[in-house]
Amino acid sequence: MRAHLVLLLATFGVAAGADARSQIAVVGNGGPGPAKVQHLTAQLVALGPAIAPGGTQQVGLVLTLEKHWHVYWINPGDSGEPPKIAWTLPTGITASPMQFPIPQRLPLGPLMDFGYEDEVAFPVTISAASTLKPGPLHLDVQVSWLVCAQVCIPGKAHLGIDLTVQPTAPQAPLTGVLGKAITLLPKPLPAGAKFSVLGGAQQFVLTLTDGQRETNAEFYPYPAEALANQAQPPDAIANAAVQKIVPLRDGVRLTVPRSPDLATLPATLHGVFKLSDTVAYDVTTPIVPGEAAPAGSDSTTSTTTLGAIGLAFLGGILLNLMPCVFPVLFLKGLALVQTAGAEEGRNRAHLLRHGLLYALGILISFWMIVAALLVLRATGSHAGWGFQLQSPVFIALLASLIFFLALSLAGQFDIGLSLTSVGSSLVDKPGAGKQGYAGSFFTGVLATVVATPCTAPLMGAAIGFALTQSAAVVFAVFTALALGLAAPYLLLSWQPAWVRVLPRPGAWMELLKQFTAVPLFATAIWLAWVYGQLHAASGVDQIALLLACFLLLAIAGWALGRWPAKGASRIAALVLIALGLAIPLLQARSAARPGAAAQAGMGQMNAAAAGAEIVWQPYSQQSLDTARAAGHPVFIDFTAAWCLSCQFNERAVLRSADVESALRAHSFALLKADWTNSDPEITKKLASVGRAGVPTYVLYPAAAGSPPDVLPELLTKGLVLAAIERGAK
Asked: What is the pLDDT of residues 622-655, one digit of tens each?
């Protein structure tokens, strides 16, 4: 911040000296040799005495400083100015811009300067035209600087150096202070190394992957270029803030606080990434908008890409056991039982194709979700797992689909692509294989769609990590999640003999199929309730419109069952389905629900007296900061009306007498982050603790500065009670 320079100079009483910069005496007469001034010695040196026509020679400005005094890097930090050099050169000679070796951080009270102490050289490459004639050559230069300790003193010098133009000039070795400075210039990233920047509201997360564990790192941003007729742009980082280092197995991650003056996130970050006093890289990389989990959270920053992929795969397998997904897997299991009596070789080949198409449907659906998330991230928006369930249109379509499928399973009609027709179409109908294959593919799509309200154990950390990484990592993690979801049925289709442990096909299968319609009808009712929650005061009216859609779908199903395989009935059914869907979709609005705290029974606990009713407050960063400033431990419940896992955890655990009693006894402040509708503040907070969806549960201990405690997605009373005890200390 250039404003800090003015403050610093005024504080130390040197503003008058800066204003009188033009009055400063210039030492030296342009001849070779050092110039001694206050607190430093300046000299122009060269690696070698000669330069060849068409060749180059390295020269440099060398500043030797008194103890405790320093000069500045090209970006001086919070105060100061870098050395400047102006050449007077003979015809045929050109000079490159002055280069700056690796700097160091120089704290000065509450500020941070970037610069050099003791001795430093600033290399310059001198180039000679090929037409230059042999003979003596004199280089003349005007130099200015600012040297500081507790006070800052500007200085100027008129320096020079003599070289000889000769036909051949052997390359001089990198010796002396100039040779050392050339070796200390920041270098490009080595082959195979990768550098990325995640830019959040309060910090930048810089990740270097170079194939080896790094334990030290610092970042120095180059100064931003001011546009024409505009003031100097603000610094990118908070220069004096602590830069947090997290060593990685194959590199290092550095968290750098963002400058509070930086209103808009830059497109790129350009600077020097320093690993040691002798190794630093000149890096320029696009900034990916997003938030990263802080050190100390449950999703520790030591999470690796391979670890996240493994967690995602296991989470996908467990997702099959969630109440929103298990009915789909169950119905696919029925299809396997139906085909158990077919010829072994033919049956196995067909089942394997079905398994592969089921997996393909899941994969393509997940890739579409990844594409949507990446597009949102590229446009500066944030979204997480289940974000599509924040759309009333999507909820209406999903509820209608599930209701229509339940009608088919209940026996009202047979739909050609229904899950229950897959096995019979393979075995009994030679021409129906195409329909069966399409059914398996779209069953995979359906499994993905109905999985979005659920977050299985292990999924949260994997998805939260992935959404802070590059597009390739996001793709890999979500692909692993999709393969985990597809794995059980894919494995059974590969080894159909394993289904022999199940009962032989019979009449029980039709009864069980019809019974499966019951949880699907229940799911449709629940989605209708969620649909109403997504609207404001008109929630009841919107539910009525969706029920009217269900009525027309039921009439369409009756037509298909009354006149099966008739073209007229199919046309009538399609018309009725279109009319039914139009009723809620044309009225769908994305208005946020007011009074969410009252609807969900959430808010901050009133701990004034034992036995007081547990009350929750709607989450906001201000309410969190206020509670922590007052010394209260804080419990945040990130939830949504459409999240089945959230509803189960709240009713079975969070609202239990034991948990409520413990929260009351330890004076917890209770905050509900309701993500039913899209809320950028809640999305950002989820990302800050390494999560990208709900349910998420975060406890902030009473001790100031303590890191948050992120609980697993599936809660138990014992787990929550233990976390409450930890947070109260």
From this structure: 888 888 888 889 999 998 877 777 888 888 899 8
Residue with tokens 């982050």: 673
Burial code of 324-358, b = ≥16 C-beta within 10 A, e = fewer?
bbebbbebbbbbbbbbbebeeeebbebbebbbbbb
Give me the DSSP letters along 254-281: EEEEBPTT--S--SEEEEEEESSSS-EE
Instruction: Return contacts of 608-612, CB within 8 angstroms, 24+ apart.
Output: 610/664, 610/665, 611/664, 612/664
Quickly tell me which residue has 């059974």 as its tokens.
492
Q: Which band of pLDDT confidence, cut at 50, 70 and 90, is reported for residue 470? A: confident
What is the token pair recorded at 66?
């008194």
Residues 112 and 70: beta-carbon distance below 8 Å:
no
Of 634, 661, 659, nearest in space to 649 by CA:
659
Residue-wise DSSP of 121-163: EEEEEEEE-TTPPSEEEEEEEEEEEEEESSSEEEEEEEEEEEE
How far is residue 410's CA from residue 413's CA, in Å, rounded to a whole number?
A: 8
Decide: residue 91, CB within 10 A, 0-12 exposed, 13-18 middle, 19+ buried: exposed
| pLDDT 10s digits, 306-341 | 877 888 888 888 777 765 566 666 666 666 555 544
Hey, what amino acid is at 547?
Answer: L
Q: Which residues on neighbouring strands pair with residue 117, listed in sequence order?
A: 70
Rounded (10°) CA dihedral 323, 325, 329, 331: 80
In total, the chain counts a number of residues equal to 729
Host H or E run for residue 198? strand 194-199
Measure the CA–CA gap between 140 and 162, rounded to whole angstroms: 9
List the structure tokens of 726.
């930890």
Helix (H), strand (E) counts: the chain: 20, 25
75 C-beta neighbours (distance < 10 Å), count = 22
Element (H, E) at 107: strand 104-108
CB atoms within 10 A of CB 641: 25
CB neighbours of 518 closer than 8 A, spacing ≥ 6? none
Give Cα separations from 402 to 364, 518, 526, 528, 675 (angstroms): 20, 11, 11, 11, 23
CB 44 within 8 A of CB 161: yes
DSSP 3-state of 87: strand
CA 356 to chain centre: 31
State how far the alpha carbon of 28 is from the alpha carbons of 153, 168, 178, 372, in Å. 18, 31, 21, 65
C-alpha span between 350 and 165 (Å, rounded): 83
Q: How far apart are CA 614 and CA 623, in angstroms?
A: 17
Q: Which residues pair with 271 in a beta bridge?
A: 221, 283
Distance of alpha carbon 610 from alpha carbon 399, whole angstroms:
43
Q: Decide if pLDDT at 31 tops 70.
A: yes
Instruction: Report d(CA 420, CA 333) in Å as an integer.
Output: 10
What is the rounded CA–CA span in Å between residue 425 and residue 335?
A: 10
Strands in 119-128's sheet, in edge-to-edge order, are 35-37, 40-46, 56-65, 119-128, 93-95
| 3-class DSSP state of 196 | strand
pLDDT for the residue numbered 255 = 92
- Are 37 and 50 within 8 A, CB to CB? no
Let me know the angle formed at the C-alpha of 438 by 424 and 565, rounded to the nearest 5 degrees: 60
CA angle 133, 138, 140 (to 5 degrees): 135
Answer yes or no: are the C-beta atoms of 64 and 70 closer than 8 Å.
no
Alpha-helical (H) ranges within 296-343 are 305-319, 326-338
User: Residue written as tokens 């419940």?
Assistant: 637
Average pLDDT, rounded, for the chain: 77
CB 452 within 8 A of CB 388: yes
**377-to-138, 551, 675 alpha-carbon distances in Å:** 57, 39, 18
